[in-house]
Every structure is written in C-alpha cells, then in structure tokens.
Amino acid sequence: MIELASIFLQFLIFLIICSFPLSPKNLNRFMGNKIHVFNYVDCHALNIIIFLNILLFSSFLNINLKITFYLLLVLSLISIIYRRKEIFFLINKKNIIKFLLFFIICISIFISTAQVLKLEWDGFHWILKALNFYNENNIQDLREVKILPEYPHLGGYIWAFFWKNSLLELEYFGRLFYVYLYVVSIFTVYNLLDFKSDKILFLLILTTVLITYDPYLFAGYQEYLIFSILLISARFISLIDFTKKDQKKNIFLNLIILSILIWFKSEGLIYFLIFGSLLVIINKATLKIKFHYFITIFFIVLLQYFLKQYIIGIYESQHSFNIKEFVYLFNNFELLIFKILNISKHLIIGFVKYPLWLITILSLLLIKTKNNKDKEIIKYFIYALVLNLIIIYPIYLNISSSSYDFFLRVTLDRLLFQTSGFYLIIFIYLLNNSKLKKINL
Amino acid sequence: MMKKLISYYKLKKVNKYEFLFSIILVLIILTFFKTTYNSYSILLSNYEERMTQSYGYCKNESWGFQNHVIKKFNLEDKEMKIINHEGKVLIHALFENVKIVDTDFRYLIVLNFQSENDESIYDLEINNIKDYIVKYRFNNCYLLELND
Lengths: 441, 148
Prior knowledge:
The complex is a heterodimer.
Chain A: H1 2-17, H2 24-31, H3 40-60, H4 65-82, H5 84-88, H6 93-115, H7 123-134, H8 154-164, H9 171-189, H10 198-212, H11 223-237, H12 248-259, H13 266-282, H14 287-312, H15 323-331, H16 333-353, H17 356-366, H18 372-397, H19 404-420, H20 424-432
Helix pairs in contact in A: 1-6, 1-9, 3-9, 6-9, 6-10, 7-8, 8-9, 9-11, 11-12, 11-19, 12-13, 12-14, 13-14, 13-18, 16-18, 16-19, 17-20, 18-19
Chain B: H1 2-8, H2 16-32, H3 35-44, H4 47-55, H5 63-72, E1 79-84, E2 99-100, E3 107-111, E4 132-138, E5 141-146
Parallel strand pairs in B: 1-2, 1-3
Antiparallel strand pairs in B: 3-5, 4-5
C-alpha cells in the first residue's frame, strides 16, 4: 500500500515541480502575444524544459541532489500559492476531464513500470551514470564509469534525481519522470488540434499513447526523452510564422528546447544541428539575424564540448567519421548498393514497427493546406523528415561491414522511434484542414 | 465553498452520453495497461519479490540469489567478482555499494553454473579457483570465498 501511495505522491511531486516558474499569463506576456496562444499545458512543457536546464546546471556544479530538490519544491509551492486564483480559473469541465485523462494515463504507466521492474540491455549501461549521481559522486567521476563514459549524462542525472528524492528511494521512481515527460509531450502537441469536439481530442491523445507506448524502451533506455522533447519542440515550431521576418523569440525558444537533446544521447547532437539549422535556413530573417542564430547554434555545441572536455574530462564522439570505410565502399560498388538496400529494408521494418511513421507517410500523401503559414510549416517538417532519413544512410555506411548488420538490427528501429513524434504535427495539420474539424460529438 | 465552485463552473451539467464516453475511455486505459492487475500485484508482493519475479532467483540474471547472499553475508563494500555462466547480463548495478573487481577478489559469485556429467564448480576456468571454498550454494548458484 505504501508503494502505491508513493507512486501517487511522485505524480504530485512532478506536477508541482513542473508548475514553476511559467504560467500562461506571464508566458504570453513575455512572448508578446495579445491573445492567449499558450495555455497551461504549454507552460507545463516549457517548465519541464527549464527544469531540465536547471538539473543540467546543477549537475556541473555538483550540487547535492536533495538540496536542488527541496529548493525547487519550495519555490514551486510558493509559486502555486501565489498563483492560486489563476489556477482556480482553470477549473472547468473541459480542463477537469483533460486532467483526469492525463492523471489516469500517467498513473497507469507508473504502475505498469513498478510491476515490470526489469531493465533491458542498454538500461544497464545508463544506470551506471544514474548510480554515479545517486551515490553522490561528482560529475568528474563519470570518467570512471566502466561502460561508455563519454555518453551524455542528463538522462542518468534525472533518473538519479528522482530515485534519490522519492519516498522509498527505489530505482524505478527515477524512471517515472521519463513517463511523465512522455505523457506531457503528447498532451502538448495536441494543443495544436483545432477541433470543436473535445471527445475527438481525447480519443486522439489516447490513440497516440497506445501506439507509441513501448514498455521495453521505458526499461532504462533514453529514447523516450528524445521522442518527448521533439514532440514538445514540434508544437512550438508550429507557432513560428516562417513567412514573417521577425520571429526571434520563437526561433530562440525552439533552439533552447532542441538544445537539451544534445545532453541525452550522442545522436541528439545531430538532431539539434539538423532541426535547428533548418529553422534558421527556412526563416525569412535577414542574413545578419540568421548569422546570429547560427552563432547561437555553434555556441551551444561548443559549450557542450568545453563542458565535457574540461569539466567532466572526457569528450569522444560516437559518430566519428570513418573515412577508410567510405573509401572501401566506393571501391566496392556492389557492396555499397547492397548496404544501401539493406539499410532501406531495415528502415521499412522500422516504419512498420512504429506505426506513427505510417501515419506520417499517409498524412504526407493526403495533406493539403490553404494558407501560406501552414504551407511553410509543413515544408519545414518535410525537409526535416527528408534530412532525417538521409542522414541515417551515412551513419550506417560509416560502420564497418563486419558489424553494421548487427547495428542495423538492434539500433535502427530505435533511431526511427526517437524522431517519429516530431512529424505527428503533419497528421494534426491534416486533421485541422479536414471536414472532421467541424464535427461536434 | 466547493458547492459554489461546482455550480459556478456548471460541473453538474455532465450528461449521460459524456459520462458513458469517459467511463469507456477509462476502461480502455485500465485494460490496455493492466492497471488493476498491476496494482493488485504491487499490493500483494513487495519490491524484492517483484524484482525476483523479474530477474529470477537462481535463473536468468539471478537477482534473488545475489540479493540474498549480499544481505546474509554482509557483502556491501567487499571486493567481489560476479560471473553469470549462462551469459546473461550482469546486474550488480542494481545493488548499492557493491564493489566489483576483476582481480584480487575475496568473494566470487557464480550464477547459473552450467555443467556436464560430474563437472563441479572447481572445473570453472578461473586461475585460482581451487583457493576458494563454497560458502553458500543454491541449485546452480554459488558464493565462494577465498580460503586464506
């Protein structure tokens, strides 16, 4: 009974901590919106991004996990008390049902995680990073982690943070935050749905959860962190008006959101560079402003390098360019074609395994947008999709012929899963432009 | 106060159709995630029992055996080596304060020892295996200690 109560308490802690510091009122004011573009779900998602950045900062300063936790908890509670009137205004029928749906989905996945405690293969690598922080070691001690010490540490830090700061201090409580972030991200992206009927919204949210939920990946893998951040990012990218020049705040906001990816997994850096640069390129801003954006992207990458190299003391890219393999492949044209076909085959297998991809492909075939703003956004996501799929080929061609088949079988599907949520936006645009929009169930 | 609030926001106006829709939605979630069964299981078995169910006592990753000997013989902070003879992944990371070393270990835990005919644990291909004595055994899982 105590364990179940602790799970409920953990949900409450997530809810409180992620309610600070932004509220719809101050966020809309900050972004200069005359109408309420951002609602409380958007704020919750952005608060999570801020929270993750605070954790990142605190990890480099080697601040005790409990101190950071209590400080954030107290600040969040004070903020909630201060904004109590604003919160009372949120209590209406639609919001209550939405919250109950959110609560039931979260608690159900929490309880499922608590029942099936087994970590899967990669989970035993990532837990070593979590253990480093859980045992109150410094960030520099990551160098001593036996397996893949050079991998980014933020996922492990979050795991350790909530593992340490849970009532029972059980391992899986750390992983519950991954679940929470995942559910919040799905609710966030559906803020874009412009339907009269709430019931369709709830059905779509539930369907998305049902087709993207994979307990295997919640067993210590970091894939859901990238998946969720990309979902949140897709929602905020949809607010950018690519036809206008002055979109500074929105572009910087999205660069901040995307930058957190580089601290979860090595491929996060590639996603940040592709999706971030594309934001800048498609934008109608002047060359001078675009230059500022690129400097920001470059600065974020450089900052990660310096922090890892000089504070942690280890920097090694997992995606180093293997020129020998490429030269060998171009001298063996048949092998090159064979490898390309094999990668394509595994891409198709991945699409079938994660049906969100099939929905995206189908949506791409059917979508017709009327206004220019929507057209530009869809254009952005199509370019991102094409680049995302193209980049997969050199990554796997770069792996030596002896081991690439093994890597294709065990990693490509997960690589596809990570970004599958990012393109869900195309499906939502398809729905918004369909006649279904007017149905009022 | 609460009554006022409810009537103010017209929460009472939930029609039968909406109520039925919500119930169906909740039932789908509870069924898909097996929430009721999982809750029952958590109520019935504690964390250690569920860990043993997940990883096995003396099979697969053998969490149950490792947990038992670490507690029984106070092996926290003692230098040890763990071998899973069946080739399963090592899960020592799940135990706090366990010191794993490759050489000069005082304790050796052998899990799921695979043997044929009259092979014994001392036939294991480890340099100084004969210097160790069996301190505890459960089926094919062994705890050995260096015999000083």
